Amino acid sequence: MKGIVFTEFLDLVEEKFGLEMVDKIITSSDLESEGAYTSVGTYRFSEMLQLLQHLSANTGISIDNLLLVYAEHFFGVIEDSYPGLLATYKDPIEMLSSIENHIHIEVRKIYPDAELPTFKVIDKTENSLVMDYKSSRAMHHFGLGLMNKTFEHFNTTATIELEKIKEDGTEVRFIITKN
Ligand code: HEM
């Protein structure tokens, strides 16, 4: 997992819960990096999982909800860092249906070792989209947060339903309807 995902995560934890919480979740985890992340480095996903598990245990907020809120913050990072990529799109459905064959392809050019999910478009109309998410990391709620913010970016909203295809969340169907 890319360092920027860790540095932005710990920044948000500090902003919301304070530096003590950052220290607490780092010291209670067994981290090869010892919690020292740089935005250009690459670290094990298991480190993120431990940080999330400890933050969840200390705050009582579920990992899914932590990932949802974190993704909404991360969209702002994307807007600041890759404005050109977002400017390619005029419509949220067009943008979301292009993650797999355009957006994440560009991401991979910047970070060849990025660990990305796959999104398969099952059905698409002008106002709706059904897409299947697949990833061993089961970060579907990170996807949900990015999707919410994608609609907000285009000054609109949508109803997004998640249907687990696999119980462990490694395969999830997103049913998206523009409001
Ligand atoms: C992961 C970039 C749009 C879904 C990532 C990662 C980056 C990235 C850097 C982390 C890779 C790693 O740590 O190895 C971008 C950029 C985008 C974009 C620059 C737009 C310009 C989206 C959108 C979605 C999405 C709109 C909506 C669903 C995900 C998910 C992951 C991810 C779910 C987590 C990894 C996983 O589930 O396996 N993306 N992304 N991305 N991205 Fe994107």
TrEMBL record:
<feature type="domain" description="Heme NO-binding">
    <location>
        <begin position="2"/>
        <end position="161"/>
    </location>
</feature>
<dbReference type="GO" id="GO:0020037">
    <property type="term" value="F:heme binding"/>
</dbReference>
<dbReference type="Pfam" id="PF07700">
    <property type="entry name" value="HNOB"/>
</dbReference>
<protein>
    <submittedName>
        <fullName>Heme-NO-binding protein</fullName>
    </submittedName>
</protein>
<dbReference type="InterPro" id="IPR011644">
    <property type="entry name" value="Heme_NO-bd"/>
</dbReference>
<dbReference type="InterPro" id="IPR038158">
    <property type="entry name" value="H-NOX_domain_sf"/>
</dbReference>
<dbReference type="InterPro" id="IPR024096">
    <property type="entry name" value="NO_sig/Golgi_transp_ligand-bd"/>
</dbReference>
